[in-house]
Amino acid sequence: MKKTILQFASGIALIGWALIVQADELNLRPGVTDISREVYDLHMLILGICVAIGVVVFGVLFWSVYAHRKSRGQEAAQFHHNTYLEILWTIVPTIILVLMAIPSTQVLIAMYDTGGEDMTVEVRGYQWKWQYKYLDEDYNRTFSFFSNLATPRSQINNRQVKTDTYLLEVDRPLKIPANRKVRFLITAEDVIHAWWVPDFGIKRDAVPGVVNDLWTIVPEPGVYRGQCTELCGKDHGFMPIVVEVLPEAEFDAWYASQASTEVVKAESFGETFTHEQLMAKGEEIYGTYCAACHLADGQGIPPAFPAIAGSAVAMGPRDDHLRLVIDGVAGSAMQAFGKQLDPVELASVVHFQRHSFGNDAGDISQPADVVNLSGGQ
Amino acid sequence: MSEVIHADHHDDHDHGPEKGLLRWLYTTNHKDIGTLYLWFSFAMFLVGGVLALVIRAELFQPGLQFVEPEFFNQMTTNHGLIMVFGAIMPAFVGLANWLIPMQVGAPDMALPRMNNLSFWILPFAFGMMISTLFMEGGGPNFGWTFYAPLSTTYAPDSVTYFIFAVHLMGASSIMGSINIIATILNMRAPGMTLMKMPLFVWTWLITAYLLIAVMPVLAGAVTMMLFDIHFNTSFFNAAGGGDPVMFQHIFWFFGHPEVYIMILPAFGIVSHIIATFARKPLFGYSSMVYAVASIAFLSFIVWAHHMFTVGMPLAGQLFFMYSTMLIAVPTGVKVFNWIATMWRGSMTFETPMLFAIAFVVLFTMGGFSGLMLAITPVDYQYHDTYFVVAHFHYVLVPGALFSIIAAVYFWIPKWTGKMYNESLGKLHFWLSFIGVNITFFPQHFSGLAGMPRRIPDYALQFADFNMLSSIGAFIFGFSQLVFLYVLIHTIRSGKPAEGRAWEGAKGLEWTLPSPAPYHSFTHPPKVTDAEVQG
Ligand code: HEM
Ligand SMILES: [Cu+2]
Ligand SMILES: [Cu+2]
């Protein structure tokens, strides 16, 4: 009986050990910034102290279990206190704690050294995507975009082989320059999210109505990945963060091109599109922005998320449908997409909803209609 | 004197329990109510355990296999709520009911009718909460911490039932606490001064005050949610000028003392068991009492260590970091005292002792990870990852839960008059011990490697540890069926137990015959030094 338990336990221990040895990630990563390295060193220091205390304390305990047992004929001593010992083991831990608090305080103060930034990016959490807005010197908006999970559903549902960046890949990564101090303003639109890039050693909650700030200086260009770390609803596990750090010159070129495409895009809002063009564009937008709640087949998850298939709105007057999508539904998960999508995208996704999943409204929505409804904005 | 009382009240005290099912409905007897609490909590433990196994089955491999993310969130939320409010807390109240009157030398609890009410509220509260899982739109899916606005504006409709259930649980806990305080302060046998009380009684006295202090705060939080949801207020709604962060302050002002509510009685239990099987007096009785009192005090000023990432000012972060680190001092004192109690004892290792020693080791490991989490700059890296999951499971499963199991093995001879089967008890222990470590130890690693908590699917580098963790969870889960078997086997066909069932056991309860009489002490016992712990 005892023997089988022992064999079983050692078997499991062996498997566990094998896994530990071959696993590539066991510990906190040192990361790539000064702060993340300081955090890593602090982690190793505290861990080391805990392990040392553990070895001593558990050593005494196991010695006692081994030596002071009745089966070895040990007589029970009858002492029940020792004032010196008790004072000693109150004071020594206190001193150790003070020694731990000093470097911790230093690192924390270093982390709070905001200000003197070279550029600012607003990070806004939405159910279930991130919006990055590059702010210029007056904190006016220059341009912004959304960053969505890029892993296809087929991988998540095990119909296709998962790639190395499974669940850690996005359609448009945040880009920042190397070696410059970037300040992030973190906030949220709907519920609380949290923005975390482990390699930078920074994490902050994105809270609606609150703007938190964070900063980083990344010396190494590269791609860094993180995830949302505050439960934010159904697809909390599916809103990764990818930051691409570019060499400075490359970043500047990219930034200039982005700022100018904003202008080019605005000119296309006057154009008219064909049914086919709208459907193609709309299907794409629907997949990235709407399918999380209304599902790829338009059936939704009633009662939380209504179906688009057969929806009274999608079959009703076109302008009501457009308005609902532009303004959202206050107090529900249906967001105001007028703030997220441009008129071409809005027109095409609404057109797509009105002509898919068996819906057949038989009308057409153009960017100009969106511009009119949202007050020519 | 006591002879006189005896003669006067003779007939009042000699009846046994009523017969049939109504006995359990109408009972005002502390033992019956204790039994009800304990079986209720065991049932909730199994329900919560099944939900945990759903979670672990889904996390066995990357990808979505069994459940949808929406349902997964309902599983994590209800698992947490059921384990905290349905399994651990009622189990401790059940133990308090059984043990406190016997340990202080009283016939029963001070307020028996309220005792009945505080138990019978619970099945309704949990019946209602669990029923929401079957409602259209599903049950609570916002985590056991139910942060607004996910739990208000964005919650499923069933949240109103959840709020009502939390109110009921709070009412039950407050009534239970009042009863415990009244019993301890008024019904001790003559000669049992405060500093002669058994440690289980001391820890429960302090726990009961914590409960009375914080349950109303929780009630306030859910009431504000109710108003935000139904009456258009904006306590937590940023769009209306409210503040979602305020919710977290209120929640954790309740929540941190709550975690000590779940561990202080465990400290008491373990102190009894270790001293008994070491056949030695408890080391440092008075420092144990002071340590518990200081932990209780500190637990009110550390709450925002759960909120290091919400963006508090530097001074706030430092205050909460230092105060949290301080908790390690009295916690350390307790651990050192337990080890000093074992030192140069004459130890034997029956099942309760095995669980108690595992408690000391594994709870201390949870304390270490707690200390690491207290260090604000590194907590940024750990927060809301599996590292936190590993931490609180180490303090709650081999901590609170093991102490409850140990208490059942330790006192069951007194309750039933029968001895459990030692080999089966040991089998239960080893399976649980191995299962718990395989489940939760790897979670430290997945957390450090960056796996967020509360996600139904994960990146490939976390796969190995998750698989291991799921295997451990199934081992642990199914070994609790051994426990169920041991209990039934003991009650039905255990060998008769002596009054003082354990050689080294001290305390008034052991002066009673086993099983203990229906009304524990009909006349106050004499408190002799031989039965005092310190
Ligand atoms: C030395 C003592 C302890 C310290 C220093 C400590 C510290 C902490 C800290 C700092 C956190 C927040 C981690 C984070 O979210 O980033 C935490 C979480 C937690 N702790 Fe402890 N802890 C200790 C003991 C305990 C005990 C005794 C219990 C319960 C029996 C407990 C239960 C919990 C729970 C349930 C959470 C997670 C709450 C959640 O977010 O869902 N802790 N602890
Ligand atoms: Cu999230
Ligand atoms: Cu806490």
Please tell me about this protein's structure.
The complex is a heterodimer of chains A (377) and B (534). Chain A contains ten helices and ten strands. Chain A folds into four domains: 1-25; 31-111, Orthogonal Bundle (Helix Hairpins); 119-267, Cupredoxins -  blue copper proteins (Immunoglobulin-like), CATH 2.60.40.420; 271-373, Cytochrome c-like domain (Cytochrome Bc1 Complex, Chain D, domain 2). In chain A, 43% of the residues lie in helices and 16% in strands. In chain A, the strands form three sheets. Chain A has a five-stranded mixed beta sheet. A three-stranded mixed beta sheet of chain A has the order 4-10-9. In chain A, strands 6-7 form a two-stranded antiparallel sheet. Chain A is α+β, with helices and mostly antiparallel strands and 377 residues long. By secondary structure, chain B is mainly alpha-helical. Chain B contains 16 helices and two strands. Chain B has a two-stranded antiparallel sheet. Chain B is globular, with a radius of gyration of 23 Å. Chains A and B meet through helix 1, helix 2, helix 3 and strand 7 of A and helix 4, helix 10, helix 11, helix 12 and helix 13 of B. The complex binds protoporphyrin IX containing FE and copper (II) ion (2 copies).
